[in-house]
Amino acid sequence: MAEKVQVFEISGLDCPDCAKKVASGVQKLPGVQMSELNFTTRKLTVVGETSVQLIGERVRALGHDIVMPETNQNQTAQHSSNFFSFLWKRTETRFALLGALLILPGLILNELLGQEHLWVNWLSSAAILAAGLPVARSAWQNLRINHNIDINFLMSIAAIGAFIIGAYTEAGMVMVLFALGEALEGFTSEKAHASIENLLDIVPQTATRLIENNGSAREISVQVSDLNIADRILVRPGETIPMDGKILEGISSVNQASITGESALVEKTVGDEVFASSINGESALIVSVTQLSDDNTISRVVKMVKQAQEKQAPAERFIDQFARWYTPLVVVLASLVAIIPPIFFDQPFLNPAEGGTGWFYRGLTLLVISCPCALVISTPVSIISAISNAARHGVLFKGGLHLETLSKAKVFAFDKTGTLTEGTPVIMAARAQDHRAFKPINTSCSDCSDLVALAHAVERRSQHPLAQAVSQAAESLGVAEKYPAALQVTVNPGKGVSGDVGGRLVQIGSHRWLDDDILHSQEDCDDLKNLELDGSSQINIAVDGVLKGSLLAIDTPRDSSRQAIADLKQMGIEHLVMLTGDQPAAAQQIAEAVGVTDFRSQLLPQDKLIAVEDLQRQYGSIVMVGDGINDAPALALANIGIAVRGTNSSAQAMETADVTLMQADLAQLPFALKLSRAAMNTIRFNIAFAIGIKAIFMILATAGLSTMWMAVVADMGISILVTLNGMRLLKNPV
């Protein structure tokens, strides 16, 4: 019997340490087999037979809110529009604001009068209670439930210690600044978390549905969730398209930047696909719905990005391990600083009468800066921001691991057809065996037309680019229905395809296949080799084992390929290799046109695997870029597989790949590489900055040169600064 799995959304998480406390607390409930809370997605996954009520009570006891599934399955935690509304919705922050109001008058008057008065100490004590009680309560609940200490416990001890030695004002400031700093940290973290959710905000909640009524169409406004597949909707000029669909009527230009990241408008006509969240241009469109609202392209993009955010990068795992040791070590250090000098070196334990600070106070200051939040938050916020930015520009990473791996790439390998080229070859000429010479496809050659018709009968259900070219030629020549669809169709990867057409075995394939299996003359071989030298693709047709003729197809490089290759070279990628099943001459022609540094031709799918392994041995980390089903094994084997989503792209390639380009534009490749490098540089800087500042304040605290409130400001400031620095990745990388 499968274990029960429940998923909740948790709000009020300021840093990854908060997520760990909640997950650990829920894990201790009776019946729970596994509890996991991902800080980046705020999703709590609970496996086991435990009631929703118990889970909710435990989460709230630890100081956080939970979205209960039975209340509304589609409900999500609401994000605050501004900092002040965020502050006000948190009970602990309202108490902190009260503490600030209590302590500020005392600070001002204390400076004016030059000495502390009793009532100033009372105000400070009240501020400690107001700002500190929620912190102390959270510390106690974590200690009671999880049996470990956290930053709330350390801050509470520091404030109590300061109160004991008579530093009332400073104790109050520590609690107020800590609570407000936690709130600001939580706000910036929430902004990063909400960045991907904003993609869904642009999709309208209503649509104009067309219903047939006595021969005319009646317009009604409906919720998009009520639309079904094949429903017809009207999209007026300037409106946002509410559902994925195909155009039934109308011609218009569409802005689909929210899906593909491309800024240019795309011309759409009858039969073309449109995406929810795209903006219609100058003309009205009637669209047939092809996907339900929960399964449209923009929803799938958001789901994929959320799943990606759940996967930790190696840098995140390293920092999590480091943080487990960091806080206990600093606590031990603080204890030793407070105890050893007074015991062994006759130093003052409390504040000496002649001024300065005692070692107990210095130990308390060290406690204040022992929080690991700045370290553990620096990495996930950077990765969330980078993945969200990539998604908005049409690049989908399936995890932070792939973001990190891409940044280390040494070599890029490319499939040719559909990746470096348009992937939409055109049949330009045909040669029937009885005529010997190739003739343009649009001439009145009945034998040539018959070749196209036979090829179409076998290829008509195939999605291969050459098969699509054959089908288009058959339609244009009016021979698409000359023969019925072939029966018993068999595909031989890298060679060709065969099928039964009216009782005849029709075989279609490459020159290599021709040499192995089909009866043909030496003259045929010589003619085909000459064509290969021109860089053309051939489709050879045989009937019952005898060659009947050939079709000639030409594919052209994408406009973006040469620029993308040049940009990658400029970014330091020295090895750019094209892997293709084409003949050497055709491969060389495309390789020179786009500017790759090397190419390997006549490769079957298994040969591409060998080529990828060889490149890995030579250069290390390799990126494989492809779009077809024959690329899927190489995409899976490469350190990073990148699928290009185009007209003829394979769903298997996109499923196998680690990264997907949502439009057939290789200009997104340099962007993705630049973003991944910027993300890793940001993470490294954040970690070094956080450790460096903490080390400085540890030295200052030990030397008695830092006050507790200065340490709080520094600690919270570091967390906020590294969060804001990570959020810079929401913008284009510089």
Structure commentary:
The protein has 734 residues and is an alpha+beta fold. It folds into 5 domains: 5-78, 2-Layer Sandwich (Alpha-Beta Plaits), CATH 3.30.70.100; 204-301, Distorted Sandwich (Calcium-transporting ATPase, cytoplasmic transduction domain A), CATH 2.70.150; 311-394 and 676-734, no CATH class; 396-422 and 557-662, Rossmann fold; 426-554, Calcium-transporting ATPase, cytoplasmic domain N (3-Layer(aba) Sandwich), CATH 3.40.1110. Helices cover 50% and strands 19% of the residues. The protein contains 26 helices and 27 strands. It has a 7-stranded mixed β-sheet with strand order 14-27-26-25-15-23-24, sandwiched between helices. A 7-stranded antiparallel β-sheet has the order 17-16-22-21-20-19-18, with helices on both faces. It is elongated and about 110 Å long. It starts with a strand and ends in a 7-residue tail after the last helix.
